[in-house]
Amino acid sequence: MLRTPQDQKSKTKNSKIALYKIVILLTLSALCLTDVWAAVLVLEERPQGQRAEGYLSVLRDPSGRLDFDQVRERSFTPLAGQVGFGFTRDAIWLKLDVHENAGAVKPDNGHWWLEVALPSLDDLRLYVPDADGHYQMTRSGNHQPFTERPLAHRLFLFPLKLPGPGTYSLYLRVSTGDSLAVPVRLWGSQSLRERIANENLWLGISYGIILGMLIYNTFLWSVLRDSLYGFYVITCLTSLMVILELNGHAYQYLWPTNLWLADYQHVLLPALHFIALSWWTRRFLDTLRQAPVFDLALRTIMLAALGMIALAIAGQYSLGNQLAFWVGATMTLLIFVATLRVLWRGYRPARLFLLAQFAPLTGALVTLARALGIAPDALWAEHAFQTGVSLEMMLFSLALAQRIELLRQEKQQAQQRAETDPLTGLFNRDGLLRRVNDLRDRQTPYALMVVDLDHFKPVNDQLGHEAGDAVLIAVAERLRALVRAEGDSVARIGGDEFVLILRGITQEADAGVVAAKLLKSLASTIPTPAGEARIGASIGMALAPTDGQQLSRLLQPELFIKKGESRLTN
């Protein structure tokens, strides 16, 4: 039978289609085989351990009553990505298939370690097969005394003693009243030891920063007796306690046998921190005066935190824990907006206060990015949040120092205004009194000169008060020009009465030289808006402590009358 060219083309086309189908089938088969192989985690000694995400399967037990034999008969659902279930009352069963190669390098002590890196979980039970095919259960969690943990560590670490090379199924049961997440990682012994050592160094630095700020500001509080330092110290202390709680060190070191605190610390410590931080913010930003609406909102946050404590005491842990999330998120937003409000009104220390709030927020974002695989799986990324909290406390301390300095400057300026003559800028009587008292306390001798202007009343009467003011300002400038920049002082204590303090002068002759220069300076005419004015002056002198130490004594008229030779007139 003859075949046309058209038939040959058709046959060639069908052959290509069949070939394509075979290639596609082989590709899909390879992918399926890859998936099957990927479902088993091959144990290896790695510096960062081996994360179990992508290898886990899950079974939810809403009743929490399934035993291990019943669970093994059930089918598990593969999990992709992070193992998080939020707030749930279900018991979560996880299945992990691991494979140990015959030629693999074993850990130096003969077994691996399984880590669950969330210290707030209540109950964990790991089932590992033995050489006889039976499963051995190891239990841990915050509902167990810390001393009963397989390894005394802030996280949950289970020894993984496998019978030998081969593939094994591991089962992990987890339940908690907190938000439930199960970050599982497997370690070799050497890499785990190195990890713990490096982690302790990183944690020590973070704790050290907070503790240093706490001790330093506690000392300042004891010395200065400023209540604002007290609010900062309490906030710093509660912040440290929250970090200890989040890392698992609070249960490990502070109350390892108190199961109630081990359970309810996740509500009580955040609640105390919310109260302290809200109170500190209100006092630092002065929200009662600067932002009354936000002050009321922060008071509400404090009441909600007290509600968290009441729920914990009443045994409503799960409800209190969920409330902690919403109270914390709301408080963070309120403090941020309140800071912007106060900063907009020109309060300079609010800039550092605002910057401090970005530190833990940035740390939380970095930690989240690490969990999502965006940031590198490194210690600095894992502990970025607590590093941010440490920086927050440091910036809060700097903001507090800036605020105290600002208050000091405002107080100094107010004191200067109270002790300064508004027309001439010289000391007034109060300022002169403080200066005399300072010299008396330091036992420093000085000469005091009283300058009475002559012919000043005619200036006011004939040229007007504006001209009189110009004369007084000119006299003040000439007096300043005659005294030394350091130590000497000039004051105006009456309408046309001035006082000079010449530090270190103990002889009337030396004071007389200055008095003569002063009389010569005041003898020249003074320009005013109404024309030139001419005045004179009478000068009286007294020496301290020879003639007395009290200002009232040194200004007595009879003192100058008695010492007539010290009464000079131009």
TrEMBL record:
InterPro entries: 7TMR_DISM_rcpt_extracell_dom1 (IPR011623), 7TMR_DISM_rcpt_extracell_dom2 (IPR011622), DGC-Regulatory_Protein (IPR052163), GGDEF_dom (IPR000160), Nucleotide_cyclase (IPR029787), Rev_trsase/Diguanyl_cyclase (IPR043128). SUPFAM superfamilies: Nucleotide cyclase. Residues 444-570 form the GGDEF domain. It holds the Pfam family GGDEF. Keywords: Membrane, Transmembrane, Transmembrane helix. The chain crosses the membrane at residues 201-221, 228-244, 264-281, 293-317, 323-340, 352-372, 384-401. Gene3D superfamilies: 2.60.40.2380, 3.30.70.270. This is Diguanylate cyclase.
